[in-house]
Please model this.
Amino acid sequence: MRIFVTGGAGFIGSNFVRRMVARPNVEVVTFDALTYAGNLVNLGDLEGLAGRHAFIRGDICDADAVTKAMAGADAVVHFAAESHVDRSIATSAPFVRTNIEGTRVLLEAARECGVQKFVHVSTDEVYGSLGATGYFTEESCLAPNSPYSASKAGSDLLARAYCETYGLPVVITRCSNNYGPYQFPEKLIPLMIIHALEGRALPVYGDGGNVRDWLHVADHCSALEAVLREGAVGEVYNIGGHNERTNLEIVKMILRFMGRDESLITFVKDRPGHDRRYAIDASKMKRELGWTPAYDLERGLAETVAWYVAHRQWWEGILSGAYREYYERQYGVGL
Ligand code: NAD
Ligand code: DAU
Model:
């Protein structure tokens, strides 16, 4: 199976690529623009796997480049996106461009290339916000509240329409918040770990009572492999781990694992339009594909803290901007 993976130099994409190239009879082509969030260092350990893995730098909005790179692919797994809510509140244009127009370009290319499966990796944020009780099911209405989630919802609807109209074999996944190795340090968990390591204030938005449903990235990747291999065309699958915690609970767990003082916690202004609670009903994944997560949050978060402590060079390279030079060393031209 030859898999065309977009956004494979980002957090979840790089974890997925590493998982899949280890499989027999699988070849992966990673297609990634290397935006600020893309980091070839994330795939550094795959160097030397010529024949099993190839990296192509390209923009998913560039139809010619996409169609050329996708030729010969059996399947597409589409991660590439602008992914950070706070950035979308500051400037929404790149989100509409990459997440909606980029997805349209990929869907067109997939038609032209005759791919047999198109896995569109989406998010629980398209469902909006929950009250104190209840779960998102695949039948929940789409009610996005941020420019990021609105652009993801737009891409979901395009993917659905290409399946209905052109018979493109699309499957859509909607996952809850991921954590684990290689997450860009703008997101809650790596940001808090790094701030705690540096003895800086930990900025908790609002009252810290917003709830997220955390899933280890390895569990998301195992779910995506199940969807890629067995997911039914035209279906939506929710992916989540039943690990609902408030942001304050997560930050306190991190401080406990690190043996640091809770006095570092600082409450700051709330995020505009801040979704109060996400919680996923992932029973369809279990019932239809036999998928269940392997990690519990206590173990997964402890391992994640240990990973960031052990990989100081990785995140320092991001904070200093040096990670951009890795590409230049590999390819001889600057980003
Ligand atoms: P990320 O920001 O870490 O990585 C995104 C990757 O996409 C980067 O490598 C970047 O260079 C690439 N990219 C961005 N614009 C591009 C373009 N125009 N052309 C080609 N490549 C481009 O994101 P992530 O957290 O790994 O998320 C991956 C996907 O999973 C996204 O679609 C996101 O919506 C979805 N998702 C994320 C989470 C989460 O908790 N992180 C949860 C559910 C779903
Ligand atoms: O639910 C899935 C989504 O999870 C993905 O689709 C997104 O790509 C991903 O970024 C993530 O979105 P969130 O907005 O939930 O993640 P973030 O890490 O930005 O924030 C998690 C929670 O922590 C949220 O309630 C805001 C809060 N927060 C975040 C940061 C960065 C803080 O309190 N302080 C912070 O500094």
User: Anything to note?
Assistant: Residues 6-7, 9-13, 32-35, 37-38, 59-61, 79-83, 98, 102, 121, 123, 152, 175, 177-178, 184 surround nicotinamide-adenine-dinucleotide (ligand 1) (CB under 6 Å).
